[in-house]
Amino acid sequence: MKKKISLIGAGQIGGTLAHLIALKELADVVLFDVAEGIAKGKALDIAQSSSVEGFNINISGTNNYEDTKDSDVIIITAGVPRKAGMTRDDLLGINLKIIKQVADGIKNTSPNAFVICITNPLDVIVMALQKYSGLPKNMVVGMAGILDTSRFKYFLSQELNISVKKIESLVLGGHGDTMVSMLNHTKVDGKLVLDLIKEGKLKKESLDRIVQRTKSGGAEIVKLLEKGSAFYAPAASGVEMAESYLKDLKKQLPCAAHLKGEYGVNNLYLGVPVIIGKNGIEKIVTIDLNDIEKKNLEHSISAVKELFDAAKKIDSFLG
Question: Which end of the chain has the smaller Cβ count within 10 Å, N or C?
Fold first, then answer.
């Protein structure tokens, strides 16, 4: 029997997710949006490419949560995207209301689904989603670290003129200006990136610039697009998580997961390496951090806590 993925939000990320899932034949797709026409129109458009691309899945659009019933995976992109000049924090009030409605919709129809949240501000929204829905913490996860890591690897590959496939790295912490590029865990063709600086093959200033560009990777795209935010890379990252769950690939991926003491963090969602398999988040992977990485991660944790405190002021239920 075919698996079922429901996409809550049929905007740019939702539509791109549907297209990628169809091309991979991962599952049947239900595109949900309060604007029913957009969901149905995008679903129909993608479905009409099936004979060209040769995929065989059902894809439909709806504004009724009943149509998403018994989904294996739910990917949430619903919410207002960031506009130029807007911080992720500005989005908080608006998107908390939206995520509460989504939580109510999915907990009644797909209580056993693996739920991936992409809505910003990510770490706080995914935590609110888990609290509102009451779904198991290992089955509710945020997509951020894969995207941030992918951006970092791309920028590094361009600087060094080397294939992204030859770069290993991790970007952890909150999804925002305090994210941490783990330089001690970044290898280029098997060699530590910090050793490349010692050997004079990469300037420290260049690496610092790449780290900073990664932090503002989303804002850079918002500024360029003027009317919209990133959607191709976020969608590809979400699909990687869904695929690891559906196929029990047990991939190690950086995701916003609920921590219970790992990395010195209790009862907070934060970007860390996790193993995703058929049971959702099967393991939080703890990696050794040097003093600089610890300090940077603590700074990121403080920023996430601060934003969650702001969310609790907006809605005391989250307290």
Answer: N
